[in-house]
């Protein structure tokens, strides 16, 4: 089995920014409520005619450039998203066509906000076994397109964006050291988009009742999130025999500052090791972790050999974590 690491990263958010003050003009809310309850101050929003595949393409392109590879070298493209361009064809196929990764297989993976962790886990199996050498993993969302812009309890929370990573074999002892994934479908109703699938096909009635938009039971998700971040982090560290104080950088899914603060306090991880960018992006679901990883690297917060823990949780319910020992040096052994 090969060791598998991230040899290139990229991210992209649409230009348009919606501040909390902008939201005050749309729903009965205010900057003070949003900032103090969530930590979010602004988020980016894709124009009406820009689908998630465009955001994924931009992030993917940057990751390929960063990895210094040609698009033809990519063997597989995985897009993690809960806001695909279409039910089918898969967004990954559309993105692969635009990137010119003409030798690549492509598929979508949907585990909501845990999408990037699940996709990285899936991708790393292909590389570890030697079936593929180069996999492009993208987490991208256009959450703005599935929000009910009249529901103040949800529309203030989310943003649009995409983040990407190129996975390749790396030297032994580096790259992904462990993954821990989980799910509990009994909590599916806490967070869902009820209509538009085979359970409740689209009709005039479903549109009239706003059933194509995100519905959430916020308090239930909150409690689940605080518990699961702690549990899954301890499990993934235990798998490789690492202590909490050996973590150099902790990248949690960026849903709510209060969730992160409570979970980090419970774990006893030093706050200066925790990456927070939700104040400028909101919750970008599957994009939040890869965007935070890309920014952390480009801001010089990650060095060779650093131990990074990334933790996601979301609709499903799903959760996942990984331990990554950082190196960007892929093995050049074609
Ligand atoms: N502005 C002003 N008031 C508001 C707003 C708003 N935007 N939204 C809700 N309120 C009001 C409510 O109506 C309620 O009023 P009431 O007491 O008169 O009934 C009051 O504020 C308190 O509402 P709560 O829902 O109890 O507020 P809470 O402190 O729980 O915060 C929040 C709500 C921010 C949604 C929180 O529950 C949360 O972060 N939950 C987790 C959400 C999450 O992480 N979701 C994403 C998961 S990842 C994925 O898969 C997509």
Provide a concise account of the structure shown.
This protein has 334 residues and is of the alpha/beta class.
Strand arrangement across the biggest beta sheet:
1-7-6-4-5
Q: Per the principal axes of the C-alpha atoms, what is the gross shape?
A: globular
Largest sheet: 5 strands, mixed
User: Structural class given helices, strands, pairing?
Assistant: alpha/beta
Rg of Cα set: 19 Å
Low-pLDDT runs: none
For the secondary structure, the number of strands is 13
* Relative helix content: 25-40%
Strand content: 15-25%
Describe the structure.
There is one protein chain. Strand 12 (307-314) and strand 13 form a beta hairpin. The protein has 334 residues and is an alpha/beta fold. The two termini are 16 Å apart. Helix 3 crosses helix 4 and helix 8 (218-239) packs parallel to helix 9. Helices cover 32% and strands 23% of the residues. Acetyl coenzyme *A (ACO) binds next to helix 2, helix 6 and helix 8.
Task: Indicate the topology.
Layout: E1 3-12, E2 17-19, H1 20-24, H2 31-38, E3 42-44, H3 52-66, E4 76-80, H4 91-99, E5 105-109, H5 115-128, E6 135-142, H6 152-155, E7 160-170, E8 175-183, E9 191-192, H7 204-208, E10 215-216, H8 218-239, E11 249-252, H9 257-267, H10 278-281, H11 288-298, E12 307-314, E13 318-325
Parallel strand pairs: 4-5, 4-6, 11-12
Antiparallel strand pairs: 1-7, 2-3, 6-7, 8-13, 9-10, 12-13
Helix pairs in contact: 3-4, 8-9
Residues 29, 33-34, 37-38, 112-113, 152-153, 156, 191, 216, 218-219, 221-222, 225, 255-256, 259, 283, 285, 314-315 line the site of acetyl coenzyme *A.
